[in-house]
Amino acid sequence: MKKIAIDMDDVICDGGYLSLINKFLNTNYTVKDINGYYMQDLVPREKFKQWNEFFKTQNLYDYVEFLPDAYNVIKELNKYYEIYVLTAYVLKDIPEFSGKFLEQKYNWLYKNLPFLDPNKYIFTTNKDIIKCDIKIDDKISNLNGIVETKILFSAYHNQNVKKEELEEQEIIWVNNWKEIKNILI
Ligand SMILES: [Mg+2]
């Protein structure tokens, strides 16, 4: 069986960060308001310390939702492939909270994707050390490494990726899980 490594945030589920930021700031930001990769840049500098303290009192994964079709397509892929979830958990601004964050991630995956083997969760920021047949991620640099098929999942922060860059690195762009199903099944 071929091995697929699937990223979690903004590929399997999303919405958590933005919900927490809106809850904290009492705002209605949408993904269109985000510039760059880090959503926490929406938080004004002077409130950043408070934001980090607030974050530590919350479970981000109480606020996420599956991306459309993610659950069904992953369940189907599970029949034909060995599925790994490959996700980073170290929080750059609050590394001391990362252990708790890892627990939140683990619990969400365990509860919401019960057909996956928890032994196949891989928690690391250094995704390029993982060798697999197929990798699906929304961050282009995470697709590096020894991978046969690289799939870039469309997300708020990668809309300006150039076609040439994708071609050069032999990356397949997808907009949604239906497209992944068409490619892989
Ligand atoms: Mg991601």
Amino-to-carboxy terminus distance: 13 Å
- CATH architecture verdict of the largest domain: 3-Layer(aba) Sandwich
What percent of residues adopt helix (DSSP H or I)?
A: 25-40%
Count every helix, treating DSSP H or I runs of 4 or more residues as helices: 6
State the CATH class of the largest domain: Alpha Beta
Superfamily (CATH H level) name of the largest domain: HAD superfamily/HAD-like
Radius of gyration: 16 Å
The distinct bound ligands, ions and cofactors come out as: magnesium ion
Q: State the low-pLDDT regions, or none.
A: none
Shape: globular
Q: Beta-strand level of the residues, as a percent range?
A: 15-25%
Query: Whole-number average pLDDT?
Result: 96
* Largest β-sheet summary: 6 strands, parallel
Spatial ordering of strands, largest sheet: 5-4-1-6-7-8
Number of domains: 2
Q: What would you say this structure looks like, in words?
A:
By secondary structure, this protein is α/β, with parallel strands linked by helices. It has 2 domains: 2-14 and 66-184, Rossmann fold (3-Layer(aba) Sandwich); 16-56, no CATH class. Helix content is 32%, strand content 19%. It has 6 helices and 8 strands, in the order ββααβαβαβββαβα. It has helices spanning 16-25, 48-56, 70-80, 98-112, 163-168, 177-184; strands spanning 2-6, 13-14, 65-66, 81-87, 121-123, 132-137, 147-153, 171-174. Strands 5-4-1-6-7-8 form a 6-stranded parallel β-sheet. It has a two-stranded antiparallel sheet with strand order 2-3. The longest helix has 15 residues, at 98-112. The structure holds magnesium ion (MG). The site of magnesium ion has 7 residues, from loops.
